Amino acid sequence: MGTDNQTWVREFILLGLSSDWNTQVSLFVLFSVMYLVTVLGNFLIVLLIRLDSRLHTPMYFFLTNLSIVDVSYATSIVPQMLVHFLAERKGIPPVSCAAQLFFSLGLGGIEFVLLAVMAYDRYVAVCDPLRYSVIMHGGLCARLAVTSWVSGSVNSLLQTTITFQLPMCTNKYIDHISCELLAVVRLACVDKSSNEVAIMVSSIVLLMTPFCLVLLSYIKIISTILKIRSTEGREKAFHTCASHLTVVVLCYGMAIFTYVQPSSSPSVLQEKLVSVFYAILMPVLNPLIYSQK
């Protein structure tokens, strides 16, 4: 058969954002600063929540989880990208590529579920404030957080496993900034329709389902707010949800644009920019957005 020599690629080459040296140096400086801001900003949020007993509430518990996810997601992609900006050969071993795909995909899934959990928390806070502490007790919050982490990790493990079982033949050039799911699947030299179906199912389970739950929560929240007679009461209720709603629009919007229809996905450049958005911009913006509350 002679397929063994074709199936296993010893090293993948990431093409990155640009091949121009000056552009790569500029991006290295810019992304280095943004990564440091990401780590520092999210670390300060977690530290502040830990030290201030007034912030020991369900919302800030979930925000702590979100900050950890943001830093971890950025760390799964950005350091390697920074190294490649200054490296002549931008290679990554298959094992490292698989690990990067697993962690980035898993952490992304965890964030989507966490945002849905936080939407439920905001729904209870606005629509049933008198029973908030009874409903959102510590046990429930812990179970919801664990569900987020487990669901994202299991999905990522399944997707990574089936993706790296695909024969890559001699294809080793990944036209992306990292080992991103769609970019790796494109390397396969066999029919990829089953993988596209798996990506579609995953998108429905871990993206569209949480999104629909968020949408339902905010329909009920808005309906409740509109029934509040006082202007001050309405503003306070809107302010309670404003930070989370902003993050939801940014996060889900980009993901739905990229993953819901992989067979008719946007251009490679657009995919790269979306990945930069999630790895660089969102982890920086989240602390800024939530600190406004």
Automatic annotation (TrEMBL):
Putative odorant or sperm cell receptor. One of its GO terms (cellular component) is plasma membrane. It comes from the Eukaryota. The keyword Signal does not apply. The lineage of its organism: Eukaryota, Metazoa, Chordata, Craniata, Vertebrata. It holds the Pfam family 7tm_4. Its main location: membrane. SUPFAM superfamilies: Family A G protein-coupled receptor-like (SSF81321). The chain crosses the membrane at residues 25-48, 60-78, 98-120, 197-219, 240-261, 273-290. It is found in: Cell membrane. This is Olfactory receptor. Belongs to the G-protein coupled receptor 1 family. InterPro entries: GPCR_Rhodpsn, GPCR_Rhodpsn_7TM, Olfact_rcpt. Residues 41-290 form the G-protein coupled receptors family 1 profile domain. Keywords: Cell membrane, G-protein coupled receptor, Membrane, Olfaction, Receptor, Sensory transduction, Transducer, Transmembrane, Transmembrane helix. It is a multi-pass membrane protein. GO terms for molecular function: G protein-coupled receptor activity; olfactory receptor activity.
